[in-house]
């Protein structure tokens, strides 16, 4: 059974169309990165999946059920959600806050201490949330989302405000949950670091799905050039001539190297040609990162929009 | 119901932690004891006065104070959760909007009830201990009625606070609305009624006037606590119109209960219809 299926999902707010016909699905044990600029429709999509909002038209099914149907109460026991901005109850301690949410989700109180330990809050559990830093609140939010071992986890900017160590812990938790069959939707602006932990990426823009697939598929779809760095940048006047027709550009880089842009299919021929040079000390290939892919699809959207105007 | 009780328990704990319970209890106890002690100062003596006088002065004070405390306690109950981000989170939990609102109300209602009972109860105990003439038998009736109706008055304004907090989209605006409600119900309404009486030289339809008095919970509260004592009723001016009608205490108390239930039901209805 699929964790989430969205079909022609549409949501309007008055005259504003926040989501215009989204088709997207997610398997159990799959991690989906949901990317997009502010107002792209990420939060609306999440709220529709959580059943907080009703779609204007189209369908959404979560773990095979309608998130706003009769069984929604039981369905919600199996969902975990970390909102983007949540400050919790300042006068209660971290443990009290987590216990409150655990009771509402009918989770054994003993799990609370275990989760506090898991997110690294056991020391601060007895302190009032008012005194917590942004990162500590974020950890508390994550602990809350993990209550009751959810089968679907929605995380909105889970690593904002976290230091690198804590960020690593979050991703380790996500990897572990994925292994246990939990489906995860990860909304994030922090692009570097996300790509290793997502199975698939969906890029939203102005309420539409711009691109969707594995990182490899997106790279092919975008057909962005690869960059080869050849070190050192010795004066070799023939180099351009020898590589001609197989490269897009060649220029001297800042780090005493040649920066060569090529199409993906020319990677091996160009590298073989470069290896023939006796001056070559080092060679590295840079594939487009999620960041450049995102920028590419975002630019496409903006160019598309400006054509219409 | 289970979820509502969990929310109520958390809200109550929050009230204890905020020292709301302590503050309200102390305020009520000190005021009640002071009024009982100095109530006779106008007649030139200091010492505990007659129970009826004490209750009457307590009622006129409580009518200002209790609505204000109730509104302050709960004006941000829903809009505050919204601004904290916890409302959106709770909406993804297996709890209905009605259970959330009802649970929070139960929590606030028990905070208010407990501190009203403790505060005025403490005052009654002090009066019994230090005033030779006062006995438990003499005080129990009037004080129970006073405490009971004071709790209902608090709950009525708590319900209005919930209505405000569902309607307002910002905490600051909710605070402003709460003050406005207090001002209208507690101060302006009676002045306007008085103005009506004076302006028309008393030629207002008796039925209409009685109706106007009975649709304000603060006036109903005064009525409950004044009509119980003949001597006080005679001295309470405007309310004399009604005192002569002799409404039963049960009728008046159910009227106040209506003031609790109706705004709360409207608040729950609006909350359910809200988009977020």
Explain what the structure shows.
The complex is a heterodimer of chains A (309) and B (276). By secondary structure, chain A is α/β, with parallel strands linked by helices. Chain A folds into two domains: 4-219, P-loop containing nucleotide triphosphate hydrolases (Rossmann fold, 3-Layer(aba) Sandwich), CATH 3.40.50.300; 225-286, 2-Layer Sandwich (Alpha-Beta Plaits), CATH 3.30.70. Chain A is 33% helix and 25% strand. Chain A has helices at 42-50, 72-76, 94-104, 110-118, 134-145, 164-179, 215-222, 239-243, 267-275, 290-308; strands at residues 4-13, 16-26, 31-35, 57-62, 79-82, 152-156, 183-187, 200-205, 208-213, 226-231, 249-252, 258-262, 282-286. In chain A, the strands form three sheets. Chain A has a six-stranded mixed β-sheet with strand order 5-6-7-3-8-9, with helices on both faces. In chain A, β11 (249-252) and β12 form a beta hairpin. Chain A is globular. The model of chain A has no long low-confidence stretch (mean pLDDT 85). Chain B is an all-alpha fold. Chain B has one domain. Chain B is built from 13 helices and no strands. Chain B has helices spanning 2-17, 20-38, 51-74, 77-84, 86-91, 97-130, 136-167, 171-199, 206-214, 217-227, 230-235, 240-243, 249-273. In chain B, α2 (20-38) runs antiparallel to α3, α3 runs antiparallel to α10 (217-227) and α7 (136-167) runs antiparallel to α10. The longest helix of chain B has 34 residues, at 97-130. The radius of gyration of chain B is 20 Å and the shape is globular. In chain B, 44% of the residues are buried. Chain A binds chain B through residues 47, 50-53, 72-74, 76-77, 79, 81, 83-89, 91-92, 96, 100-101, 103-106, 144, and chain B through 3, 6-7, 10, 13-14, 17-18, 84-86, 88-95, 275-276.
